[in-house]
Amino acid sequence: MTLLRAFAAKLIPQSQKSLPAIYISVRNVSDNTDLKAVLAQKIPAQQEVVKSFRQQAGNKVIGEITIDMMYGGMRSMKALVTETSVLDADEGIRFRGYSIPECQKLLPKAKGGEQPLPEGLFWLLVTGDIPNDNQVKSLSKAWNSRAALPSHVVTMLKNFPKNLHPMSQFSAAITALNSESKFARAYADGVNKSKYWEFVYEDAMDLCAKLPSIAATIYRNLYKGGSPIGAVDMNKDWSANFTTMLGYDDPKFIELMRLYLTIHSDHEGGNVSAHATHLVGSALSDPYLSFAAGMNGLAGPLHGLANQEVLVWLTKLQQQLGSDATDDQLKDFIWKTLKSGQVVPGYGHAVLRKTDPRYTCQREFALKHLPNDPLFKLVAQVYKIVPPVLMETGKVKNPWPNVDAHSGVLLQYFGMKEMNYYTVLFGVSRALGVMASLIWDRALGLPLERPKSMSTEGLKKLASK
Ligand SMILES: CC(C)(COP(=O)(O)OP(=O)(O)OC[C@H]1O[C@@H](n2cnc3c(N)ncnc32)[C@H](O)[C@@H]1OP(=O)(O)O)[C@@H](O)C(=O)NCCC(=O)NCCS
């Protein structure tokens, strides 16, 4: 790595040396199909990059904090380090520097498929490298071989009442899976701090592997009479196995699942599910406990539950206005929603200021595969009407649709009509991003997160100085 950095230093103009070094250190592509070994090679170099960067610039002031920011949900406050993805307000998400269209183009696909395999995205998030076909296949195999659930989790899921929300079941099952945590065991055995990441990696791999089995078990228990999820096929990819476990076999639905599980994975570090996972992980709670915390956040209507809320809202709209609503009728309905003090689900974002590219790629999928679906047509019509109405309110900073405005309509088209369940799919995908980040949190030795809070009284005193 020292050689690589010396080489990089020669290539990079003096003025840019401090920034691109971070990227160069994670971009030495290897053909090795062992993800852990590839990662192990990268970690010392990145540790060195961070160490020397902090020595060089640790005291540099990069922003200011206003009192409004403290009361305003810390919007735009730069306070977290997340390596896996960065969200640009106008352009949308970039995973390790790659936009969604670039990922769709560059990441390996299933035979005959057009959408990226989420295993490839995980590889990219963990290493910074676009993997080759063999690397992705080896990840599919690794996850397939780790997919089985311990019996206490299956029994627990079977015993939950039908009226317990699927996200509560999902989160509880993930918490209970911590009986399997290799990190918790190693920590109890006194493992050296420098090796934490290795056990977090193992837990992250097990967790990603087992989530489809948990999610499919919940789906079958709630909606398919408790029928078995069936066995994992060692030759199929993660999304194909998941879709089959759920009870669907349409190849287009499998393709949708690959796209869905790729694009919902990561949205930099400050969103509720990513931040909660990172925060709880900083207490050295194991990856299962940390991820369950993230899922409890994803279950909120202002975060992941919005994809369920969108379909509920659209269904209400259809029930009240019929299937051929005019633009004016839609406008009235939207105003009624706003005047009743509710939000229009699927629109707005805390960071984005343009249409979410995750919305756009789902719209492209719909235009290709279900252009005449009545609900898709309604979603497309709503897309025209909502933004100007939200702008008219004068307070919404981003009137454009986010990822949740489109996902439900695609799922219902393929027969998955159980809206309460949708956020669970989001959760399965979110694991890829937050687990990749958690591995790096431990690899970089990030400490317990403990910001300072203040009372209004204390702030008043501070402000009067
Ligand atoms: C995502 C969301 C929580 C971001 O919140 P935010 O960062 O506070 O957004 P803004 O700064 O634009 O909010 C300013 C005001 O506009 C309102 N607003 C924002 N989006 C809105 C929407 N879709 N419908 C109605 N009002 C909205 C806010 O509630 C806030 O009102 P207030 O001042 O009366 O409290 C918000 O846009 C929202 O509630 N959207 C709908 C739910 C959703 O789709 N969530 C998924 C996000 S990926």
TrEMBL record:
Active site positions: 303, 349, 404
Location(s) in or outside the cell: Mitochondrion matrix
Cross-referenced SUPFAM superfamilies: Citrate synthase
Primary location group: mitochondrion
One GO cellular component, as annotated: mitochondrial matrix
Keywords of this entry: Transferase, Tricarboxylic acid cycle
Pathway(s) the chain acts in: Carbohydrate metabolism; tricarboxylic acid cycle; isocitrate from oxaloacetate: step 1/2
Family, as annotated: Belongs to the citrate synthase family.
GO MF terms, alphabetically ordered: citrate synthase activity
Gene3D superfamilies found in the cross-reference section: Citrate Synthase, domain 1, Cytochrome P450-Terp, domain 2
Organism, as annotated: Strigamia maritima
Highest classification ranks of the organism: Eukaryota, Metazoa, Ecdysozoa, Arthropoda, Myriapoda
Protein name per its UniProtKB record: Citrate synthase
Keyword Transferase in record: yes
GO process annotations (BP): carbohydrate metabolic process; citrate metabolic process; tricarboxylic acid cycle
Substrates-to-products reaction catalysed: oxaloacetate + acetyl-CoA + H2O = citrate + CoA + H(+)
Record note on quaternary structure: Homodimer.
